[in-house]
Amino acid sequence: MAAHSAQIGVRRVRRRTPKAVRRARTLTVLFLLTVAAAVLLCPRRVQTQAHEPPAGVHHTVAPGDTLWDIAVTYGGNRDAREVVYEIQRLNGLPSAEIYPGQVLFVPTESR
């Protein structure tokens, strides 16, 4: 029986000192304050103002029309590339391909 009891070991439980507990609490609080500050100070994408839809016209595509031609016609002094992109975006066009009879919303205000 003495041989059996010699194999049983006693494991010591390590307790944290009050200094270590205070340090852990301080670091936790600092981390939480940093996260809270980052959340509060980061710019938000929430728009506070209601945006009015852009001014524009509805253009019915004629045979031979291209987005470039339409952009030059209605774009005024704006860069035609920007107007083409905006026409595509406003009308949900995945490409510059358009068809006769198609009705497109074309912005006319300058930005």
TrEMBL record:
Database matches in Pfam families: LysM (PF01476)
Segments crossing the lipid bilayer: none
Superkingdom as given in the UniProt entry: Bacteria
SMART domains for the chain: LysM
Residue ranges occupied by any LysM domain in the UniProt entry: 57-106
Name listed for the protein in its UniProt record: Conserved domain protein
Protein source organism: Symbiobacterium thermophilum (strain DSM 24528 / JCM 14929 / IAM 14863 / T)
